[in-house]
Amino acid sequence: MSLSHKIDFAVIFAVKNANPNGDPLNGNRPRLTFDNLGEVSDVALKRKLRDRLLEGGHAIFVQSNDRNNDGATSLKDRSDKTLGSKLTSEELAQKACAQWLDVRAFGQLFAWKGTKGAGDGVSVAIRGPVTFQSAFSIAPVDISSIQITKSVNTEGDSEKKGSDTMGMKHRVDHGIYLFYGSMNPQLAQRTHFSDEDAQLIKQTLPRLFENDESTARPAGSMEVRKVLWWQHNCAAGQYSSAKVHRSLSVQHDGSYTLTNLPGLTPEELDGY
To answer: Which stretches of the chain drop beneath a pLDDT of 70?
Structure first.
């Protein structure tokens, strides 16, 4: 059975001396808006959620190379090995949604090239019911940059000193970030995204940054402070997502207030 009630949610998280989402077009500096607000893209947030779900033993289609658990060398390879290569578009969509949690949640574009001249390519677009917005800091953030060097012998005579290699590291000193998301029962009917799937995401959001450590994001530098979960009493929803999201006001220190929406009170979950 597919999702029975509309759901909205919000996640408040803190960043301290970390690069939450580097911008490859700007020397991997933390992403910023023109107003100097920190930003984390929705794609980066969904990547972290996928990783946590994969660690929990759930089937995930879009896996990162360093967390690959099935030996597939590409998305097409994973699709062919799991579903088979001789499928109609409808069969591919149905089997993909049944197999992979992230496909029935976020949707997926399957666009495979066919054999030249054979006309056996496929392009299947699956629209998912779960949407994430990008995260933005509540206030402008300060970015610190440091120059780093290393002097090692990477090859050749060990008696000779290697040339210094220089680079830069960037970090957000401190920031409180917020992002919103929604789950749409009408779209869930197409992918068979269920109430049980929604509960999995709900349980995973407080642990979004668990096992996500790196040199850019040291352990403890990224922390989910609070997850707010609004479950409406019907599939259409008692209020628009915009009105629900607007009912939350977050302060610079991570505290927050809620505007009363009659008949709709969020469940509040602490971070991991």
So the answer is: 114-121, 151-165
pLDDT tens digit string along 88-140?
Answer: 889 999 999 999 999 999 999 998 775 554 445 678 999 999 999 999 999 99
DSSP output for 197-245: HHHHHHHHGGGTTTT---SSS-TTSEEEEEEEEEE-SSSS-SS-HHHHH
Contact 267, 228 (CB under 8 A): yes
The alpha carbon of 206 is separated from its chain's Cα centroid by a whole number of angstroms, namely 13
Residue with tokens 């029935």: 104
Q: Contact 161/153 with Cβ under 8 angstroms?
A: yes
E strands present in 19-119: 22-23, 29-30, 37-40, 107-112
- Residue 260 has which token pair? 């009363």
Amino acid letter, residue 226: K
Say how far apart CA 234 and CA 174 lie, in whole Å. Answer: 39
* Strand duo 122-127 + 143-150: pairing: unpaired
CB 13 within 8 A of CB 136: no
Q: How many CA atoms lie within 13 A of 163 on its CB side?
A: 2
Which of 10, 8, 30 is CA-nearest to residue 20? Answer: 30
The pLDDT value recorded for residue 200 is 97
Q: Which residue has 């409180």 as its token pair? A: 176
- Which DSSP category does 163 fall into? P
β-bridge pairing 37-40 and 256-258 = unpaired
Read off the pTM. Answer: 0.91
Backbone angles phi, psi at 183, to 5 degrees: -130, 125
